Automatic annotation (TrEMBL):
A molecular-function term among this protein's GO annotations: iron ion binding
Pfam families reported for this sequence: PhyH
Species: Parasedimentitalea marina
UniProt-recorded name of the protein: Phytanoyl-CoA dioxygenase
SUPFAM superfamilies xrefs: Clavaminate synthase-like
Cofactor dependence: Fe(2+)
InterPro entries: Phytyl_CoA_dOase-like
Length: 331
């Protein structure tokens, strides 16, 4: 829902009018030095201006002829078929509560409150995170859904909504990359007023938001990939900047095409696995300051080169170890 609904508000430009929220990230992006086009011009862009047919697919999701579709679907498990059609799978009561208790104990020992670990690669140092993020049943499920081993790339560990606007995570990857995936782990019953994870089912089969097309809105020094991987601490990353373009475009698309927005309101131990091209967001909390105890993991195909080195987790699965942990973008 547009935040402007029902409230007479004055917006300096239509980007603000359609944005999911005037989050600090959004305001920094639109008031920063990043764009080479005016905000008014950017606000006229449509989804087709920022998205293209992806070059590569996992075998389950790509479009086929009707006959091939029918034959393929007949071979799929219930989870595979659902993932193929909807771009996500929910598994209730999936993570054993003793693993969650062990992880929450670690957080308590470190006095984290609702804060994250300060780095997206804290799973390297803390096996308690890996025991959840690389739970053997999940590693197995990834093989079913993506037809390959997926390695853990980052974890988001703050117990609050990210309040990120609409985006697909794969916008950070090269056009020829295979789809990545995300997993949302509920560490407690989640209060729907804390800003839940929201998504548009089936949007993983839309054209994919493309970083080269988004680059045309940006001054050369703020373009992907260098502005993402080379962002200095405290600077907005490329992903953060272009979300200010993507989010209002998707909001408008939802309104114009009357698309259904779904929320994940889990209980403790539930997980939601989403395809890297599914459009989703972290909703704005209805009640400020409410905890949202969760881990979010991002996973990429293990065999793709150039990410760094994947280590074998002693208890199953793989996780990325970057050349220098200190290079990691702060989460
Ligand atoms: O806050 C959320 O639930 C969404 C986070 C998100 O978009 C992500 O981790 O990729
Ligand atoms: Fe995301």
């Amino acid at each position: 829902m547009s935040i402007s609904k029902g409230i007479a508000m004055f917006f300096k430009n239509p980007l603000e009018k359609y944005a999911s929220s005037l989050s600090s990230n959004f305001l920094r992006a639109i008031n920063g030095p990043y764009f080479c086009k005016s905000l008014r011009e950017i606000s006229k862009a449509r989804y087709e201006d920022i998205a293209t047919q992806p070059e590569n697919e996992v075998y389950l999701v790509g479009k086929r002829s009707d006959r091939e579709d029918e034959m393929l679907n007949a071979t799929l498990t219930e989870d595979q078929l659902f993932y193929r059609q909807n771009g996500y799978v929910i598994k209730r009561n999936f993570i054993p509560h003793d693993l969650i208790a062990e992880y929450l104990e670690l957080r308590k020992k470190l006095n984290l409150g609702d804060a994250g670990f300060g780095t997206p690669v804290s799973y390297v140092e803390h096996p308690e995170i890996r025991r959840i993020a690389l739970f053997p049943e999940l590693v197995k499920l990834f093989r079913d859904l993506h037809g390959m081993d997926m390695g853990l790339l980052v974890t988001h560990t703050r117990h609050r909504s990210t309040e990120r606007g609409w985006h697909p995570d794969g916008y950070l990857d090269a056009a020829e990359a295979l789809p990545r995936a995300g997993v949302w782990f509920a560490l407690d019953d989640i209060d729907p007023r804390s800003g839940p994870f929201e998504y548009i089912a089936g949007s993983h089969r839309w054209k994919m938001v493309n970083n080269q097309m988004l680059n045309t809105f940006l001054k050369p020094e703020y373009r992907w990939p260098q502005a993402h991987f080379g962002a200095q601490k405290g600077e907005l990353t490329w992903g953060g900047i272009v979300e200010a373009i993507i989010d209002p475009i998707v909001m408008k698309k939802i309104e114009q095409e009357n698309l259904k927005v779904e929320s994940f309101c889990p209980t403790k131990g539930d997980v939601l696995i989403w395809h890297g091209r599914l459009i989703h967001r972290g909703a704005v909390p209805e009640v400020r300051g409410l905890s949202r105890p969760s881990i979010i993991g991002q996973y990429v195909p293990l065999h793709e080169k150039g990410r760094g080195m994947f280590m074998r987790n002693p208890e199953g699965g793989f996780f990325l170890v970057r050349p220098s942990l200190h290079d990691a973008v702060k989460f």
